[in-house]
Design goal:
Strand content: 5-15%
Protein name: Proline iminopeptidase-family hydrolase
Family: Belongs to the peptidase S33 family.
Number of helices: 11
Strand order of the largest sheet: 1-2-4-3-5-6-7-8
GO molecular function: hydrolase activity
Largest sheet: 8 strands, mixed
Radius of gyration: 24 Å
InterPro entries: AB_hydrolase_1 (IPR000073), AB_hydrolase_fold (IPR029058), AB_hydrolase_sf (IPR050266), Peptidase_S33 (IPR002410), Pro_imino_pep (IPR005945)
CATH topology of the largest domain: Rossmann fold
Keywords: Hydrolase, Signal
């Protein structure tokens, strides 16, 4: 065998080195820290923290669960109801982890997974705003990473929080909630109600007039003729388990007290029936996303208008209904993820 010349030898060594590097890259990919809970104070609980909240009648614990780890993007989820649960966000697990967005489930006081003092003196927007603020501090969320997403009643709470504490926020997301309870009631009665079968609507309205809300027929009519059109546009037998758990775990006491019995807006003695911050939206300066839906119980045109009222807003309208994360997840999550990433990159317009 002839001796190899110096240039040939160098070339062979380089080829061997490149091959080894390629093998190393294939066998040792760079690991993401997104799912690394090592050394965190919630590792042993799988991200769950029961956070003490001080109230006028004592200190109680609320449930939170952190999903993922991204110190730059942390989304606190405010569920609806009032008296609902974090289970309404059950399919967020299917969309946000691949984007490495950290999100935090949270059951408000008197909701299923949290303490239940069952004291109506705490069932006010003022209390719940301060509760969110205490949760924020406990989780060390701040203006550099804190996104607040509220859906339905959670949207009311998110707007109220922003109007008082927006200096703590990096971004605000209002999902499926208008800024005026009277406007919500008007839309339900003047637009959505007349779309129903007149005989069905009359039967529902007669039972409401007689306060016959516990009648199984009332729930049956609503579920089959209203909920499957405007709450979640799927046959009832195909509703996801997390949505069924949301309804199973709903606290009716706080729900009726604040929202009322009727699904056609807020009526009777509901404490939220006159709630309206439409005239204050212009005070909100932080980047804001309004997530509406074509078939929602909330007027999608009104939600588009809300995005023009805040100082730095964007609107996305899905083809879904009130739980549009389930019946139009493609539009819902693509809009949500783009908003968060645009804000994070300083490219939000």
């Amino acid at each position: 065998m002839k001796h190899l010349t110096a240039p040939v030898l160098i070339m062979l060594l380089l080829m061997i080195s490149c091959t080894n590097n390629q093998k190393e890259n294939l066998t040792s990919p760079e690991k993401s820290s997104y799912l690394d809970y090592s050394g965190s104070d919630d590792q042993i609980t799988g991200g769950i923290k029961m956070i003490p909240v001080e109230t006028a009648i004592g200190t109680f614990n609320v449930y939170t669960k952190r999903m993922g780890n991204n110190p730059k993007i942390r989304v606190l989820l405010l569920h609806g109801g009032p008296g609902g649960t974090h289970e309404e966000f059950g399919n967020f697990d299917g969309f946000l982890p691949k984007e490495e967005i950290e999100y935090i489930y949270y059951d408000q006081l008197d909701s299923y997974y949290s303490d239940k003092p069952n004291d109506s003196t705490l069932w006010t927007t003022e209390h719940f705003v301060e509760e969110v603020e205490q949760v924020r501090k406990a989780l060390q969320l701040n203006k550099d990473n804190f996104y607040l997403l509220g859906q339905s009643w959670g949207g009311i709470l998110a707007m109220e929080y922003a109007l008082k504490y927006q200096e703590n926020l990096k971004g605000l997301i209002v999902s499926n909630m208008v800024a005026s309870a009277p406007s919500y009631t008007k839309y339900a009665n003047e637009v959505l109600g007349p779309q129903m079968d007149p005989d069905v609507l009359k039967e529902i309205m007669d039972m409401e007039a007689n306060h016959d809300f516990d009648n199984p027929r009332y729930s049956e009519l609503l579920m089959n003729h209203y909920y499957t059109e405007h709450i979640l546009r799927m046959p009832l037998e195909k509703w996801p388990k997390s949505v069924n758990l949301l309804f199973e775990h709903l606290n009716p006491n706080i729900y009726v007290y604040m929202q009322g019995h009727s699904e056609f807006g807020m009526t009777g003695n509901a404490t939220l029936k006159d709630w309206d911050v439409s005239g204050r939206l212009s005070e909100i300066k932080v980047p804001t996303l309004m997530l509406g839906a074509k078939y929602d119980t909330m007027d999608p045109t009104y939600m588009e208008w809300m995005a023009s009222e805040v100082q730095n807003g964007r609107s996305v309208t899905t083809n879904g209904s009130h739980l549009s994360q389930f019946d139009d997840p493609e539009t819902y999550f693509s809009g949500l993820i783009k908003f968060i990433k645009d804000v994070d990159a300083g490219e939000f317009k």
